[in-house]
Design brief:
about 725 residues; mainly alpha; abc type-2 transporter like fold; Four Helix Bundle (Hemerythrin (Met), subunit A); 3 domains; 4-stranded mixed beta sheet; two-stranded antiparallel ribbon
Length: about 725
């Protein structure tokens, strides 16, 4: 426990002694919170009329109207007048069809609704017996935005409601007039409607048989077209790939030289390496001689320290110069290795600048600085020796062998491709002609099926309506209504059923629904930021020489824990007080956010503690999987099987469920169960960090060595 406390105190002192460290720490805490707040605000209320009413949709009617029993009817005008008064979408009534379509193509409108010329005629066709199916034209630009087409999909629902109401209104007027005329002529309306019902049912049966036959033909057409389409795509893809490959190979072969001379670069590198090793050895010997004697150290500060600083600066300047030259020559791998040596020299310079005369109060600190300088010198010497040993082989043998192999491979590949490309044209042409024929047939069959289904649906609905009229008391009431009561009939027929809705755990806006998702992402990002910006491993120093593994683990984790808790409280209070989300249990909401951060920081911290950079990569992968498959946006039931299988193992799921319980209301013990499972994830993370730290050291060192040998990866 004493070592843990020493680590905590040391971390606090080091952080508070640097303005830059404090600024970075504030950034780690605040930036992820901004992500959560901004995204929650942007999703505050996107599906309510106040928001969707700003989405522009053009409406144009070219309906010429129709007459029925001397009554002039224009359903297009009824639709446009009704939509103009509807605030669900930003309807814009335009004066030409061309303006509406150009607006959709240019992106001015997300969609356009066109009422065709014969719309009213087709709608009233049932009174003539020919039953034409009326059709509205709906144009939609789906490339402008991913969500807008889903919102404009509501346009279809609104249009269906308005057109149905117009149709029912017309039918109501027709029934009223027909009933009055029949009563005056002594005709029994119930018998007439019964005959109409029988006729419609016979037509329905005939149309059903026709639909079955046409669908069978369409099925055969679909199968043939799919086969041809697959063959045609394979031919096109193969031809394009071969042609492009030949062009690229020809260009590449011309640009590759026969031989690369690297002797001048090698000689310069060897010379610089020798100078660097000599000067670093001088600084190393001087510091080693005075590191255990305060008197000798103070004499060194007075007489030699200035010279050592000048020497270190000159070394760094020389290394930076050769880094620039290597980069300009295209030798970026070698330049990267020297750049890392420059970084170590920069650290050495910083520590030399921190050396001052010592007394009893600061002698331990000065010794720590000297230990750090000696460690950096040792690392730099090893890197320089490695570069010096590898430079000839890397710049000469490997590079020229790679050039020779590349030229040989390109030549062989071009020969193999030269005879393939020309044999595909005839087959592709034949497939194209067959595909056009099948598409023509398929279009005709699909249109036939659509027409037959529309006719069948219309006849079935009319049959049911006439049958109900002939066998109910409604017709008796209609016989006594006047023509000006048609609106009463239309209203009753348009909305025969009323549905009562009771909301369970109502949430007042969409932003409150999405807040848990963006919160958990922000908290995980905060944990990742901390692991990137703060060392997970604790450097051994005086005061903690005998610290055990678990003391080092928990000693540094306290810093990550405090960052996570600060971020959790900040993001929760920001959502409650600034964003203003709905929350039934605000205190429990803050508690859930704190538990989430504790678990997330522990998971990321343990992965990095055990696997170092590999652990950081694993943390990113875990976040990506959870963003896609934890049910934050789409229900998990609609996701691919792999996400449904991993869903119970995702911490995001339980973190979001706990927050949702606070936002919408509690059910049973769901809140406590979610927090309990989250804490189990934290315990598993602790076990991973402590148990795998030592066994993974060998693998981590091999991975780092392999990355170092690549000359590319850090």
């Amino acid at each position: 426990m004493r070592n843990v406390l020493n680590i905590i105190i040391h971390d606090f002192k080091r952080l508070t002694s640097s303005v830059v460290a404090i600024v970075v720490l504030m950034g780690i805490i605040v930036v992820p919170c901004l992500f959560a707040w901004i995204n929650t605000l942007s999703n505050d209320d996107p599906f309510q009329p106040a928001s969707t009413g700003r989405i522009p949709v053009a409406v144009f009617s070219e309906d010429e109207g129709a007459e029925m029993l001397g009554l002039s009817i224009n359903v297009g005008e009824i639709v446009t007048d009704t939509l103009a008064a509807n605030d669900m979408i930003g309807w814009d009534i335009v004066n030409t069809k061309d303006k509406a379509l150009r607006g959709v193509k240019s992106g001015k409108y997300y969609a356009a609704v066109i009422v065709p010329k014969d719309f009213s005629e087709d709608m009233m066709s049932f009174t003539r017996g020919d039953m034409e199916h009326p059709q509205l034209l709906f144009y939609e630009n789906q490339k402008t935005n991913a969500i807008a087409p889903k919102i404009t999909g509501k346009v279809r629902e609104v249009l269906e409601q308005e057109v149905d109401a117009a149709f029912i209104d017309t039918v109501g007027q027709y029934i009223t007039m027909a009933a009055s005329a029949a009563d005056a002529a002594g005709v029994d309306p119930q018998d007439a409607f019964r005959d109409l019902s029988d006729t419609m049912r016979t037509l329905d049966a005939d149309l059903a048989n026709s639909v079955v036959m046409v669908r069978a033909a369409a099925g055969l057409s679909d199968a043939a077209e799919d086969l041809l389409k697959a063959s045609d795509q394979l031919m096109g893809s193969s031809g394009d790939t071969i042609a492009l490959g030949e062009q690229l190979l020809e260009s590449a072969e011309g640009r590759i030289p026969e031989k690369v001379d690297t002797s001048s670069v090698s000689n310069a590198v060897h010379a610089l390496d020798a100078i660097l090793l000599r000067d670093l050895k001088k600084i190393q010997d001087d510091l080693t001689a005075v590191s255990d004697d305060m008197g000798k150290y103070n004499s060194f500060v007075d007489n030699e320290l200035g010279k050592q600083k000048t020497l270190a600066n000159e070394m760094k300047s020389s290394v930076d110069t050769i880094v620039n030259k290597l980069n300009s020559m295209g030798l970026t791998g070698l330049a990267s290795r020297f750049s890392r040596i420059s970084d170590r020299l920069g650290t050495i310079i910083d520590r030399l600048n921190g050396l001052v005369k010592a007394d009893a109060s600061n002698w331990a600190t000065m010794q720590g600085y000297m230990d750090e300088i000696l460690a950096e010198i040792d690392s730099a010497q090893k890197s320089i020796n490695k570069i010096d040993a590898d430079v000839d082989q890397e710049l000469d043998k490997k590079l020229n062998q790679a050039v020779s192999d590349a030229r040989k491979a390109i030549s062989e590949t071009r020969s193999a491709l030269s005879g393939v490309y020309g044999d595909m044209d005839l087959l592709a042409d034949a497939l194209d002609k067959s595909d056009r024929s099948l598409k023509s047939l398929e279009g005709g069959l699909d249109g036939t099926v659509t027409t037959l289904l529309s006719l069948q649906n219309g006849s079935r609905n009319l049959a049911a309506m006439f049958d109900n009229l002939s066998n109910s008391d409604l017709l008796k009431d209609v016989n006594h209504l006047k023509t000006n009561d048609a609106e009463v009939i239309a209203e009753n027929m348009a909305s025969p059923i009323k549905m009562g809705t009771e909301e369970i755990y109502p949430i007042r806006n969409f932003g409150s629904v999405m807040a848990p998702f963006y919160m958990v992402i922000a908290q995980w990002i905060g944990a990742m930021f901390a692991a990137v910006m703060i060392h997970v491993q604790v450097r051994r120093r005086k005061g903690i020489e005998g610290a055990k593994l678990h003391e080092l683990f928990f000693g540094r984790y306290r810093l990550f824990m405090m960052i996570g808790l600060s971020q959790a409280i900040l993001v929760a209070l920001g959502n409650l007080l600034y964003v203003g989300i709905q929350c039934v249990h605000p205190l429990l909401f803050i508690l859930a956010a704190c538990v989430n951060s504790l678990v997330f920081t522990m998971i990321v911290y343990s992965l990095v503690f055990a696997f170092e950079n590999i652990g950081l990569a694993a943390g990113v992968i875990l976040m990506v999987l959870q963003v896609a498959g934890s049910g934050g946006t789409f229900p998990v039931e609609v996701l691919p099987p792999v996400f449904r299988a991993l869903f119970p193992l995702m911490p995001f799921r339980y973190a979001m469920d706990a927050l949702r319980e606070c936002i919408g209301g509690m059910y049973d013990h769901t809140y406590l169960k979610c927090l309990g499972i989250l804490l189990l994830f934290g315990l598993v993370a602790i076990a991973i960090g402590l148990l795998l730290h030592k066994p993974m050291r060998g693998l981590i060192e091999k991975v780092e060595e392999s990355k170092e040998e690549s000359d590319v990866m850090l």
